[in-house]
Amino acid sequence: MKNKSLVSINDLSKEEILRVLDTAEDFEKNPRQPVLNGKVVATLFFEPSTRTRLSFESAINQLGGRVIGFSEAANTSVSKGESLKDTIMTVANYSDLIVMRHPIEGSARYASEVSKVPIINAGDGANQHPTQTLLDMFSIRKTQGTLDNLKIVMVGDLKYGRTVHSLLMAMSAFNASFVFIAPKELQMPQEYKLFLKEKGLKFEEYTELAENIKDADIVYMTRVQRERFSDPMEYEKVKNVYVLQNYMLDETKPNMKVLHPLPRVNEIHENVDGNPKAYYFTQALNGVYTRMAIMSLILGLK
Amino acid sequence: MKDKKHLSVSAIENGTVIDHIPAKNLFKVISILGLDKIPNQITFGTNLESGKLGRKAIVKIADKYFERDEINRIAIVAPHAKLNIIKDYEVAEKMLVEVPDNITGIVKCVNPKCVTNVEKVTPKFKVIDKKNVSLKCYYCEKITDQEQMEYK
Ligand SMILES: [Zn+2]
Protein backbone atom coordinates (compact mmCIF):
# COMPACT_ATOMS: atom_id res chain seq x y z
CA MET A 1 0.00 0.00 0.00
CA LYS A 2 3.02 2.28 0.35
CA ASN A 3 2.61 5.54 -1.60
CA LYS A 4 -0.64 4.26 -3.09
CA SER A 5 -3.90 6.13 -2.86
CA LEU A 6 -6.88 4.45 -1.22
CA VAL A 7 -9.87 5.37 -3.37
CA SER A 8 -12.07 2.28 -3.47
CA ILE A 9 -12.24 -0.83 -1.30
CA ASN A 10 -12.03 -2.77 -4.57
CA ASP A 11 -8.44 -1.55 -4.97
CA LEU A 12 -7.30 -3.67 -2.04
CA SER A 13 -6.45 -7.34 -2.18
CA LYS A 14 -7.58 -9.69 0.57
CA GLU A 15 -4.01 -9.70 1.90
CA GLU A 16 -3.88 -5.91 1.99
CA ILE A 17 -7.18 -5.77 3.86
CA LEU A 18 -5.85 -8.20 6.46
CA ARG A 19 -2.64 -6.19 6.75
CA VAL A 20 -4.70 -3.06 7.54
CA LEU A 21 -6.71 -4.93 10.17
CA ASP A 22 -3.58 -6.39 11.79
CA THR A 23 -1.96 -2.95 11.91
CA ALA A 24 -5.13 -1.43 13.36
CA GLU A 25 -5.09 -4.10 16.05
CA ASP A 26 -1.56 -3.06 16.91
CA PHE A 27 -2.65 0.59 17.22
CA GLU A 28 -5.57 -0.45 19.40
CA LYS A 29 -3.13 -1.98 21.88
CA ASN A 30 -0.85 1.04 21.71
CA PRO A 31 -2.53 4.08 20.14
CA ARG A 32 0.11 6.68 20.97
CA GLN A 33 2.89 5.83 18.57
CA PRO A 34 4.58 8.93 17.14
CA VAL A 35 4.88 7.47 13.64
CA LEU A 36 3.45 10.58 11.92
CA ASN A 37 5.96 12.88 13.59
CA GLY A 38 7.02 15.59 11.15
CA LYS A 39 4.25 14.70 8.68
CA VAL A 40 1.55 17.06 7.45
CA VAL A 41 -1.79 15.55 6.53
CA ALA A 42 -4.38 17.65 4.68
CA THR A 43 -8.03 16.96 5.43
CA LEU A 44 -10.08 18.51 2.64
CA PHE A 45 -13.79 18.26 3.35
CA PHE A 46 -15.58 19.72 0.34
CA GLU A 47 -18.77 18.73 2.11
CA PRO A 48 -19.06 18.59 5.89
CA SER A 49 -18.80 15.26 7.70
CA THR A 50 -17.86 16.09 11.25
CA ARG A 51 -17.66 12.51 12.43
CA THR A 52 -15.34 11.27 9.72
CA ARG A 53 -13.16 14.37 9.86
CA LEU A 54 -12.74 14.22 13.65
CA SER A 55 -11.94 10.53 13.46
CA PHE A 56 -9.14 11.20 10.96
CA GLU A 57 -7.87 14.25 12.81
CA SER A 58 -7.86 12.41 16.12
CA ALA A 59 -5.87 9.61 14.51
CA ILE A 60 -3.37 12.08 13.00
CA ASN A 61 -2.95 13.96 16.27
CA GLN A 62 -2.50 10.83 18.34
CA LEU A 63 0.27 9.73 15.99
CA GLY A 64 2.06 13.06 16.27
CA GLY A 65 1.19 14.40 12.80
CA ARG A 66 0.00 17.89 11.89
CA VAL A 67 -3.29 18.69 10.21
CA ILE A 68 -4.13 21.38 7.66
CA GLY A 69 -7.36 21.67 5.72
CA PHE A 70 -10.95 22.80 5.74
CA SER A 71 -14.19 21.35 7.02
CA GLU A 72 -16.47 22.72 4.30
CA ALA A 73 -15.97 24.32 0.93
CA ALA A 74 -17.53 27.67 1.87
CA ASN A 75 -14.99 30.51 2.28
CA THR A 76 -12.28 28.59 0.43
CA SER A 77 -10.88 28.95 -3.08
CA VAL A 78 -13.35 26.23 -4.06
CA SER A 79 -16.28 28.56 -3.43
CA LYS A 80 -14.56 31.04 -5.76
CA GLY A 81 -14.81 28.48 -8.54
CA GLU A 82 -11.39 26.86 -8.37
CA SER A 83 -11.29 23.50 -10.14
CA LEU A 84 -10.77 20.34 -8.12
CA LYS A 85 -7.54 19.75 -10.02
CA ASP A 86 -6.09 23.11 -9.00
CA THR A 87 -7.08 22.67 -5.35
CA ILE A 88 -5.52 19.21 -5.20
CA MET A 89 -2.32 20.19 -7.01
CA THR A 90 -1.88 23.14 -4.66
CA VAL A 91 -2.53 21.22 -1.46
CA ALA A 92 -0.29 18.37 -2.64
CA ASN A 93 2.56 20.90 -2.39
CA TYR A 94 1.75 21.55 1.24
CA SER A 95 1.25 18.04 2.59
CA ASP A 96 2.45 14.45 2.67
CA LEU A 97 -1.00 12.92 2.36
CA ILE A 98 -4.47 14.19 1.44
CA VAL A 99 -7.66 12.92 3.03
CA MET A 100 -10.63 14.18 1.03
CA ARG A 101 -14.39 14.04 1.10
CA HIS A 102 -16.31 15.37 -1.86
CA PRO A 103 -19.95 15.18 -2.98
CA ILE A 104 -19.00 14.40 -6.59
CA GLU A 105 -18.64 10.70 -7.42
CA GLY A 106 -15.27 9.72 -8.80
CA SER A 107 -13.66 12.91 -7.48
CA ALA A 108 -11.18 10.99 -5.32
CA ARG A 109 -10.07 8.81 -8.23
CA TYR A 110 -9.53 11.91 -10.31
CA ALA A 111 -7.66 13.60 -7.46
CA SER A 112 -5.39 10.55 -7.19
CA GLU A 113 -4.46 11.04 -10.85
CA VAL A 114 -3.45 14.69 -10.48
CA SER A 115 -1.93 14.58 -6.98
CA LYS A 116 1.74 13.87 -6.35
CA VAL A 117 0.95 12.70 -2.81
CA PRO A 118 -1.39 9.79 -1.98
CA ILE A 119 -5.12 10.43 -1.60
CA ILE A 120 -7.37 8.75 0.95
CA ASN A 121 -11.00 8.85 -0.10
CA ALA A 122 -13.15 9.77 2.90
CA GLY A 123 -16.32 9.54 0.83
CA ASP A 124 -17.12 10.58 -2.75
CA GLY A 125 -20.87 11.10 -2.96
CA ALA A 126 -22.78 7.84 -3.04
CA ASN A 127 -19.78 5.98 -4.43
CA GLN A 128 -17.02 4.83 -2.06
CA HIS A 129 -15.91 5.31 1.53
CA PRO A 130 -13.21 2.65 1.94
CA THR A 131 -12.04 3.59 5.44
CA GLN A 132 -15.60 2.99 6.66
CA THR A 133 -15.57 -0.46 5.08
CA LEU A 134 -12.23 -1.28 6.69
CA LEU A 135 -13.36 -0.16 10.12
CA ASP A 136 -16.52 -2.23 9.70
CA MET A 137 -14.36 -5.26 8.89
CA PHE A 138 -12.10 -4.52 11.83
CA SER A 139 -15.18 -4.45 14.09
CA ILE A 140 -16.51 -7.67 12.61
CA ARG A 141 -13.24 -9.53 13.03
CA LYS A 142 -12.76 -8.20 16.53
CA THR A 143 -16.19 -9.25 17.74
CA GLN A 144 -16.40 -12.56 15.88
CA GLY A 145 -12.75 -13.61 16.08
CA THR A 146 -12.77 -14.23 12.32
CA LEU A 147 -13.99 -12.82 9.03
CA ASP A 148 -14.75 -16.21 7.54
CA ASN A 149 -18.15 -17.87 7.01
CA LEU A 150 -20.24 -15.25 8.82
CA LYS A 151 -23.92 -14.49 8.38
CA ILE A 152 -24.42 -10.77 7.86
CA VAL A 153 -27.85 -9.20 8.00
CA MET A 154 -28.13 -5.80 6.32
CA VAL A 155 -31.08 -3.61 7.21
CA GLY A 156 -32.56 -0.37 5.91
CA ASP A 157 -31.52 1.52 2.82
CA LEU A 158 -29.86 -1.18 0.76
CA LYS A 159 -30.50 0.59 -2.52
CA TYR A 160 -28.50 3.77 -2.01
CA GLY A 161 -26.42 2.76 1.01
CA ARG A 162 -22.83 2.78 -0.16
CA THR A 163 -21.56 1.35 3.13
CA VAL A 164 -23.54 -1.87 2.70
CA HIS A 165 -22.52 -2.20 -0.95
CA SER A 166 -18.83 -1.84 -0.14
CA LEU A 167 -19.09 -4.15 2.85
CA LEU A 168 -20.84 -6.75 0.71
CA MET A 169 -18.09 -6.63 -1.91
CA ALA A 170 -15.34 -6.83 0.68
CA MET A 171 -16.92 -9.61 2.78
CA SER A 172 -17.61 -11.68 -0.32
CA ALA A 173 -13.91 -12.59 -0.26
CA PHE A 174 -14.50 -14.31 3.11
CA ASN A 175 -17.36 -16.65 2.21
CA ALA A 176 -20.01 -14.59 3.98
CA SER A 177 -23.73 -15.23 3.56
CA PHE A 178 -26.15 -12.34 3.54
CA VAL A 179 -29.68 -11.46 4.55
CA PHE A 180 -31.15 -8.28 3.08
CA ILE A 181 -33.99 -6.60 4.95
CA ALA A 182 -35.39 -3.54 3.22
CA PRO A 183 -38.65 -2.02 2.10
CA LYS A 184 -39.50 -2.68 -1.54
CA GLU A 185 -38.35 0.78 -2.61
CA LEU A 186 -34.89 0.32 -1.10
CA GLN A 187 -33.88 -3.23 -1.93
CA MET A 188 -30.37 -4.35 -2.78
CA PRO A 189 -29.66 -3.53 -6.42
CA GLN A 190 -29.63 -6.35 -8.94
CA GLU A 191 -25.94 -5.92 -9.79
CA TYR A 192 -24.89 -6.90 -6.24
CA LYS A 193 -27.20 -9.88 -6.18
CA LEU A 194 -25.79 -11.03 -9.51
CA PHE A 195 -22.30 -10.58 -8.13
CA LEU A 196 -23.12 -12.86 -5.19
CA LYS A 197 -24.69 -15.44 -7.48
CA GLU A 198 -21.60 -15.50 -9.65
CA LYS A 199 -19.46 -15.98 -6.56
CA GLY A 200 -21.74 -18.77 -5.37
CA LEU A 201 -22.57 -16.96 -2.12
CA LYS A 202 -25.93 -17.32 -0.42
CA PHE A 203 -28.34 -14.47 0.22
CA GLU A 204 -31.94 -14.12 1.32
CA GLU A 205 -34.29 -11.15 1.07
CA TYR A 206 -37.04 -10.17 3.49
CA THR A 207 -39.15 -7.18 4.35
CA GLU A 208 -39.67 -8.17 8.02
CA LEU A 209 -37.01 -7.27 10.58
CA ALA A 210 -37.59 -9.01 13.94
CA GLU A 211 -37.99 -12.60 12.78
CA ASN A 212 -35.06 -12.60 10.36
CA ILE A 213 -32.15 -11.67 12.62
CA LYS A 214 -32.19 -14.75 14.88
CA ASP A 215 -29.26 -16.58 13.29
CA ALA A 216 -27.24 -13.47 12.42
CA ASP A 217 -23.63 -12.98 13.45
CA ILE A 218 -23.77 -9.32 12.47
CA VAL A 219 -26.79 -7.06 12.09
CA TYR A 220 -25.72 -4.04 10.06
CA MET A 221 -28.25 -1.23 10.42
CA THR A 222 -28.32 1.77 8.06
CA ARG A 223 -30.00 5.12 8.02
CA VAL A 224 -32.45 6.03 5.31
CA GLN A 225 -31.02 9.30 4.04
CA ARG A 226 -33.33 12.08 3.02
CA GLU A 227 -30.88 13.43 0.44
CA ARG A 228 -30.97 10.20 -1.57
CA PHE A 229 -34.60 10.78 -2.49
CA SER A 230 -35.72 13.10 -5.24
CA ASP A 231 -39.32 12.65 -4.09
CA PRO A 232 -39.82 13.73 -0.44
CA MET A 233 -43.02 11.68 -0.27
CA GLU A 234 -41.09 8.51 -0.95
CA TYR A 235 -38.71 9.36 1.89
CA GLU A 236 -41.56 9.99 4.34
CA LYS A 237 -43.05 6.64 3.40
CA VAL A 238 -39.97 4.56 4.18
CA LYS A 239 -37.97 6.45 6.81
CA ASN A 240 -39.60 4.79 9.83
CA VAL A 241 -40.06 1.30 8.48
CA TYR A 242 -37.31 -0.42 10.45
CA VAL A 243 -36.59 0.42 14.05
CA LEU A 244 -34.48 -2.08 15.97
CA GLN A 245 -35.82 -2.56 19.52
CA ASN A 246 -34.11 -4.15 22.49
CA TYR A 247 -36.64 -7.01 22.80
CA MET A 248 -35.82 -8.10 19.24
CA LEU A 249 -32.33 -9.07 20.40
CA ASP A 250 -33.61 -11.60 22.98
CA GLU A 251 -33.50 -14.62 20.72
CA THR A 252 -30.44 -13.67 18.71
CA LYS A 253 -27.12 -15.53 18.91
CA PRO A 254 -24.87 -14.67 21.90
CA ASN A 255 -22.01 -13.60 19.60
CA MET A 256 -24.27 -11.33 17.55
CA LYS A 257 -23.34 -7.65 17.35
CA VAL A 258 -25.30 -4.67 16.03
CA LEU A 259 -23.28 -2.33 13.81
CA HIS A 260 -24.24 1.05 12.36
CA PRO A 261 -22.05 3.54 10.46
CA LEU A 262 -23.56 6.42 12.48
CA PRO A 263 -25.04 8.93 12.79
CA ARG A 264 -28.31 7.18 13.49
CA VAL A 265 -31.64 8.90 13.44
CA ASN A 266 -34.22 6.55 14.91
CA GLU A 267 -33.53 3.21 13.24
CA ILE A 268 -31.95 1.87 16.45
CA HIS A 269 -34.06 2.60 19.51
CA GLU A 270 -32.11 4.03 22.43
CA ASN A 271 -33.22 1.06 24.54
CA VAL A 272 -30.73 -1.02 22.51
CA ASP A 273 -27.74 1.12 23.56
CA GLY A 274 -27.21 -0.62 26.92
CA ASN A 275 -27.40 -4.11 25.43
CA PRO A 276 -23.96 -5.80 25.20
CA LYS A 277 -24.86 -6.69 21.61
CA ALA A 278 -24.91 -3.00 20.70
CA TYR A 279 -21.50 -2.30 19.21
CA TYR A 280 -21.89 0.88 17.16
CA PHE A 281 -20.12 3.28 19.54
CA THR A 282 -17.12 0.99 19.86
CA GLN A 283 -17.26 0.61 16.09
CA ALA A 284 -16.75 4.38 15.80
CA LEU A 285 -13.73 4.18 18.11
CA ASN A 286 -12.35 1.38 15.94
CA GLY A 287 -12.46 3.88 13.10
CA VAL A 288 -9.63 5.82 14.70
CA TYR A 289 -7.37 2.74 14.90
CA THR A 290 -8.24 1.71 11.38
CA ARG A 291 -7.42 5.17 10.02
CA MET A 292 -4.15 5.20 11.96
CA ALA A 293 -3.28 1.93 10.26
CA ILE A 294 -4.24 3.10 6.77
CA MET A 295 -2.29 6.36 7.01
CA SER A 296 0.80 4.67 8.47
CA LEU A 297 0.82 1.96 5.82
CA ILE A 298 0.37 4.44 2.97
CA LEU A 299 3.15 6.63 4.27
CA GLY A 300 5.34 3.56 4.66
CA LEU A 301 5.75 4.05 8.40
CA LYS A 302 4.45 0.63 9.39
CA MET B 1 -26.70 -5.41 -66.28
CA LYS B 2 -25.22 -3.15 -63.62
CA ASP B 3 -25.78 -3.85 -59.97
CA LYS B 4 -27.59 -0.84 -58.58
CA LYS B 5 -26.37 -1.47 -55.03
CA HIS B 6 -22.80 -0.96 -56.05
CA LEU B 7 -23.62 2.32 -57.68
CA SER B 8 -24.91 3.82 -54.47
CA VAL B 9 -21.49 5.00 -53.49
CA SER B 10 -18.68 5.38 -55.95
CA ALA B 11 -15.56 3.24 -55.78
CA ILE B 12 -12.21 4.44 -54.49
CA GLU B 13 -8.71 3.69 -55.72
CA ASN B 14 -6.98 3.52 -52.35
CA GLY B 15 -8.38 3.87 -48.88
CA THR B 16 -10.86 2.32 -46.49
CA VAL B 17 -14.50 1.38 -46.86
CA ILE B 18 -16.47 1.05 -43.64
CA ASP B 19 -19.64 -0.93 -44.24
CA HIS B 20 -22.51 -2.10 -42.04
CA ILE B 21 -22.72 0.99 -39.89
CA PRO B 22 -26.20 1.38 -38.37
CA ALA B 23 -27.64 4.36 -40.29
CA LYS B 24 -28.58 6.19 -37.11
CA ASN B 25 -24.98 6.11 -35.92
CA LEU B 26 -23.29 7.27 -39.12
CA PHE B 27 -22.51 10.72 -37.83
CA LYS B 28 -21.21 9.32 -34.56
CA VAL B 29 -18.78 7.18 -36.53
CA ILE B 30 -17.71 10.24 -38.51
CA SER B 31 -17.16 12.21 -35.35
CA ILE B 32 -15.39 9.41 -33.41
CA LEU B 33 -12.94 8.87 -36.27
CA GLY B 34 -12.55 12.61 -36.77
CA LEU B 35 -13.53 12.31 -40.43
CA ASP B 36 -15.05 15.78 -40.28
CA LYS B 37 -11.59 17.18 -39.61
CA ILE B 38 -9.42 15.56 -42.27
CA PRO B 39 -8.81 16.81 -45.83
CA ASN B 40 -9.32 13.40 -47.50
CA GLN B 41 -12.02 12.79 -50.04
CA ILE B 42 -14.90 11.06 -48.29
CA THR B 43 -18.13 9.73 -49.73
CA PHE B 44 -20.89 8.16 -47.78
CA GLY B 45 -24.27 6.63 -48.30
CA THR B 46 -26.88 6.23 -45.65
CA ASN B 47 -30.33 4.69 -45.18
CA LEU B 48 -29.31 1.87 -47.49
CA GLU B 49 -31.32 -1.32 -47.20
CA SER B 50 -29.67 -4.03 -45.19
CA GLY B 51 -31.34 -7.17 -43.93
CA LYS B 52 -29.28 -7.42 -40.79
CA LEU B 53 -29.31 -3.83 -39.59
CA GLY B 54 -32.52 -2.42 -40.96
CA ARG B 55 -30.88 0.57 -42.51
CA LYS B 56 -27.18 0.83 -42.84
CA ALA B 57 -24.63 3.40 -43.82
CA ILE B 58 -21.35 3.07 -45.65
CA VAL B 59 -18.37 5.39 -45.66
CA LYS B 60 -15.50 5.45 -48.14
CA ILE B 61 -12.40 7.38 -47.20
CA ALA B 62 -9.80 7.88 -49.89
CA ASP B 63 -6.11 7.49 -49.04
CA LYS B 64 -6.71 6.68 -45.40
CA TYR B 65 -5.91 3.57 -43.38
CA PHE B 66 -6.72 3.08 -39.74
CA GLU B 67 -4.81 1.52 -36.86
CA ARG B 68 -6.62 -1.28 -35.06
CA ASP B 69 -6.96 0.75 -31.82
CA GLU B 70 -8.32 3.66 -33.78
CA ILE B 71 -10.97 1.67 -35.57
CA ASN B 72 -12.05 -0.22 -32.46
CA ARG B 73 -13.21 3.09 -31.06
CA ILE B 74 -16.31 2.85 -33.26
CA ALA B 75 -17.21 -0.56 -31.85
CA ILE B 76 -19.66 0.87 -29.34
CA VAL B 77 -21.71 2.59 -32.05
CA ALA B 78 -21.10 0.17 -34.89
CA PRO B 79 -20.25 -3.22 -33.40
CA HIS B 80 -20.90 -5.08 -36.68
CA ALA B 81 -18.97 -2.73 -38.92
CA LYS B 82 -16.82 -4.34 -41.62
CA LEU B 83 -13.79 -2.68 -43.10
CA ASN B 84 -12.41 -3.20 -46.54
CA ILE B 85 -8.91 -1.96 -47.07
CA ILE B 86 -8.73 -0.91 -50.71
CA LYS B 87 -5.51 -0.86 -52.68
CA ASP B 88 -5.64 -0.12 -56.40
CA TYR B 89 -9.44 -0.64 -56.55
CA GLU B 90 -9.07 -4.11 -55.03
CA VAL B 91 -9.99 -5.29 -51.55
CA ALA B 92 -6.54 -5.94 -50.10
CA GLU B 93 -7.70 -6.83 -46.60
CA LYS B 94 -10.89 -7.17 -44.57
CA MET B 95 -11.24 -6.20 -40.95
CA LEU B 96 -13.95 -6.48 -38.31
CA VAL B 97 -14.17 -4.10 -35.42
CA GLU B 98 -13.62 -5.51 -31.95
CA VAL B 99 -15.06 -4.06 -28.77
CA PRO B 100 -11.99 -2.92 -26.82
CA ASP B 101 -11.34 -3.64 -23.12
CA ASN B 102 -11.31 0.04 -22.24
CA ILE B 103 -12.92 3.10 -23.72
CA THR B 104 -11.59 6.62 -23.28
CA GLY B 105 -13.63 9.62 -24.34
CA ILE B 106 -16.46 9.00 -26.85
CA VAL B 107 -19.16 8.07 -24.31
CA LYS B 108 -20.57 10.16 -21.47
CA CYS B 109 -21.00 8.58 -18.04
CA VAL B 110 -24.69 8.13 -17.31
CA ASN B 111 -24.25 9.39 -13.73
CA PRO B 112 -24.96 13.16 -13.58
CA LYS B 113 -23.01 13.32 -10.29
CA CYS B 114 -19.91 11.78 -11.86
CA VAL B 115 -16.75 13.87 -11.83
CA THR B 116 -16.49 13.45 -15.62
CA ASN B 117 -19.74 15.38 -15.98
CA VAL B 118 -18.73 18.10 -13.54
CA GLU B 119 -15.01 18.80 -13.93
CA LYS B 120 -12.92 18.80 -17.11
CA VAL B 121 -12.17 15.09 -16.98
CA THR B 122 -12.16 12.73 -19.95
CA PRO B 123 -14.47 9.78 -19.23
CA LYS B 124 -12.79 6.38 -18.99
CA PHE B 125 -14.57 3.06 -18.88
CA LYS B 126 -13.84 -0.60 -18.49
CA VAL B 127 -15.96 -2.67 -20.87
CA ILE B 128 -17.65 -5.21 -18.59
CA ASP B 129 -19.92 -6.75 -21.23
CA LYS B 130 -18.64 -6.86 -24.80
CA LYS B 131 -21.73 -8.41 -26.33
CA ASN B 132 -24.27 -5.91 -25.03
CA VAL B 133 -21.63 -3.20 -24.62
CA SER B 134 -21.91 -2.28 -20.96
CA LEU B 135 -19.38 0.14 -19.52
CA LYS B 136 -18.18 0.65 -15.97
CA CYS B 137 -16.97 4.15 -15.19
CA TYR B 138 -13.37 4.22 -14.02
CA TYR B 139 -14.19 7.20 -11.78
CA CYS B 140 -17.65 6.83 -10.23
CA GLU B 141 -17.87 3.03 -10.77
CA LYS B 142 -21.43 3.30 -12.18
CA ILE B 143 -22.50 1.26 -15.15
CA THR B 144 -23.57 2.82 -18.44
CA ASP B 145 -25.59 0.48 -20.67
CA GLN B 146 -25.95 0.64 -24.43
CA GLU B 147 -29.43 2.18 -24.34
CA GLN B 148 -28.28 4.90 -21.93
CA MET B 149 -25.29 5.93 -23.98
CA GLU B 150 -24.79 9.52 -24.93
CA TYR B 151 -21.78 10.57 -26.86
CA LYS B 152 -19.29 13.30 -26.17
ZN1 LIG C 1 -18.84 8.07 -13.94
Write a structural description.
The complex is a heterodimer of chains A (302) and B (152). Chain A is built from nine helices and nine strands. With 302 residues, chain A is an alpha/beta fold. In chain A, helix 1 crosses helix 5, helix 1 crosses helix 9 and helix 5 packs across helix 6. The relative contact order of chain A is 0.17. Chain B is elongated, with a radius of gyration of 17 Å. Chain B folds into two domains: 82 residues, Alpha-Beta Plaits; 44 residues, Aspartate carbamoyltransferase regulatory subunit, C-terminal domain (SH3 type barrels). Chain B is mostly beta strands. At the A-B interface, helix 4 of A face loops of B. The site of zinc ion has 8 residues of chain B, from loops.
Write the layout of secondary structure elements.
The complex is a heterodimer of chains A (302) and B (152).
Chain A: H1 14-29, E1 40-45, H2 50-62, E2 66-70, H3 84-94, E3 97-102, H4 107-114, E4 119-124, H5 130-144, E5 151-155, H6 162-171, E6 177-181, H7 190-199, E7 203-206, E8 218-221, H8 232-238, E9 257-259, H9 280-298
Parallel strand pairs in A: 1-2, 1-3, 3-4, 5-6, 5-8, 6-7, 8-9
Helix pairs in contact in A: 1-5, 1-9, 2-9, 3-4, 5-6, 5-9
Chain B: H1 4-7, E1 15-22, H2 26-32, E2 42-50, E3 54-62, H3 68-72, E4 82-87, E5 90-96, E6 102-104, E7 107-108, E8 124-129, E9 134-137, E10 143-144, E11 150-151
Antiparallel strand pairs in B: 1-3, 1-4, 2-3, 4-5, 6-8, 7-11, 8-9, 9-10
The complex binds zinc ion.
